[in-house]
Amino acid sequence: MRILLWHVHGAWTTSFVHGDHEYVVPVLPDRGPDGVGIARTYEWPRDRVTELPPVALRREHFDVVVLQRPHELEHLAENWLGRRPGRDVPAVYVEHNAPQGRIADMRHPVADRDDLVLVHVTNFNALFWDSGSTRTRVIEHGIVDPGARYVGELPRGAAVINEARRRARVTGTDLLDRFAPLDLFGIDAASVGGIEDLPQARLHDEMARRRVYVHPIRWTSLGLSLLEAMHLGMPVVALGTTEVHEAVPPEAGVVSTKVDVLADAMRRLIDDPDEATERGRAARTAVLERYGLDRFLADWDELLEEVAR
Predict the structure, then answer these.
(1) The CATH number of the domain covering residues in 154-290
(2) Strands laid side by side in the 2-5 sheet
(3) Phi-psi region of 234 (alpha: psi -120 to 50; beta: other; left: phi over 0)
(4) CA 12/CA 139 separation, integer angstroms
(5) Short-list 123, 95, 98, 107, CA closest to 217
């Protein structure tokens, strides 16, 4: 199957393009948000992924278009392809984010459409978004397994937050001081005293050197960095919001809405490497069972075949 999608979320797309299909991602000369092209900090299977400029897309055949942002549906796809997604070419819309605003106003941009399928990445998102009569499916995350790399040699916490200053309270940036000693990683992390964006493989190595993973994010669908940390074999302390309680079992760490409880748990794990290691093993076992790559790709294959018929 030949699939067109924009490179929007690096970690999610990395998992998606590990399927048994041919993937095309648009590329622009400046590699801006609408034309990032092939990833440069993630490992993608280069024999399955091609980047093409918009001018070339009209000549190409696609079995399915995967949309992830409203303007892809409203402008980019039709203008660049010369075909209407959902009408002239089968389409699915992946919603990565939890909705913002008042409960009564959380209506999805593709609500009440009969020409595509809306895919949510968590059950929490599916519950909170109002999709009207649009067909919906939940396909939970799957992670390319980085392997059990946990060492925990550094008695510190690790957190990964992209754009920590801009996203502020959403990502719990204001809570970071409560979790000292902690090292923050991510895009623009240096703006709040953290470590700038690293290639994924090096990031995983650096995370795994820290003794515990801290997830202070208030409002997100489900942070992929949390699932990556669990794959590495890291114990977890996480703010118990959105989908986190579904992803982190009690034996893998501590989940709570009480920041003091989490801070105390982090320091206990820092002081007890044996408990940290044991909980990290449990985290890895749990995440492989629920968020493994094979299950993720199988779920997507089933939906893509259904949509492309």
Answers:
(1) 3.40.50.2000
(2) 49-52, 22-26, 2-5, 64-67, 91-95, 117-120, 135-138
(3) beta
(4) 12
(5) 98
